[in-house]
Amino acid sequence: MDAKFLASRGLGLNGKTLFKVLAGGLTGAALMSDIALGQPLLLGTSITLPLVVSALVSALLGFWVVPLLRALKTGQFIRQEGPQGHLKKAGTPTMGGIFFVPVALVVALIATGFATSVLAVGGLTLAYGAIGWLDDWQVLRYRSNQGISPRTKLVLQITVAVLFCLWMASTQPRTLTTLTLPLGLVLPLGALLWPLAGFVLVAESNATNLTDGLDGLMGGTGAITFLGLAVVVSPTHPDLMVFCAAMAGACLGFLLHNRNPARVFMGDTGSLALGGAMAAVGILSGNLFALLVITLLFFAETLSVIIQVVYFKATKGSDGVGKRFFKMAPLHHHFELCGWSEIQVVAIAYAVVVLLAGMACALV
Predict the structure, then answer these.
(1) What is the band of 199 on the pLDDT scale with cuts at 50, 70, 90?
(2) Domain ranges within the chain, ordered by starting residue
(3) Quick one: which of 122, 361, 94 has its CA closest to 246?
(4) How far apart are CA 241 and CA 257, in angstroms?
(5) How far apart are CA 110 and CA 44, in angstroms?
(6) Cα–Cα distance for residue pair 120/155, rounded to 1 Å
């Protein structure tokens, strides 16, 4: 499937149109979910209202913060070895996560009356966002494409994950003892589920970080993912449902400024926070399998990087040069180099995550 075929099938979209379709679709889906679940359309008991409030607040806040980020010279550095079409994005403000992630947390906390579960998930989200901010700050400080070292970032991520798991062990030790599967199946893992939880937190945050490479890609797929998670957890964890709805709305509000052509990037500040939040909700609600299904696109992005590195090393010749399995990793860059436009890659990614979210909702 090439770019000409896609264009002939009506995918000649622009960023504004794609944003309108996504925003309208998610709002409609949230409203239908509330009606189907019989939930009152109130801030603390529905999916729709937290989503809309967060979207409006983060969108409006962006009109003030984005020019401020530009004035503070937080321009993104674009790696030379990346797609050449991305070089024109150099100088676009980054660190956008600092304004839309807190909006979601404030809305969720107010709506749920500062529920313990939301405080815990919100704290982890902020912690992962702080790690991302530190990475972004190092990039800007030294005017390079290198932030904190991968080892330092990993150590910080693991530390936060361990602290979150320790909190769960001390407050609700029965939460992580079994893995819920489709068709009512339950897999007892006992203590083995704790290291799995820690792995999920680190892996999910890195996966969303890798996915954040095109205008509107992580913002849009993040909004869809959180809406799917909101529906999944709604029967058993209404507070987390509100949190997910608020996060979906905040992603939408950010997307108004991040859609192609992007006026701001979320940076590691946003992408690490989003992945951590998704993982924390999946763990705390006992929906790790549903989380895996909804976030399979992020998993594929991560897997493409692993395959690329392993294949390059395995085929390395005496000259020290190996072959590449993909034209470029992560996966979205491979499709770009195959001739797809950014809009086409992002639109298809949205469609894929919508299908995955629908599958996850059907399986629970």
Answers:
(1) very high
(2) 15-289
(3) 122
(4) 25
(5) 8
(6) 20
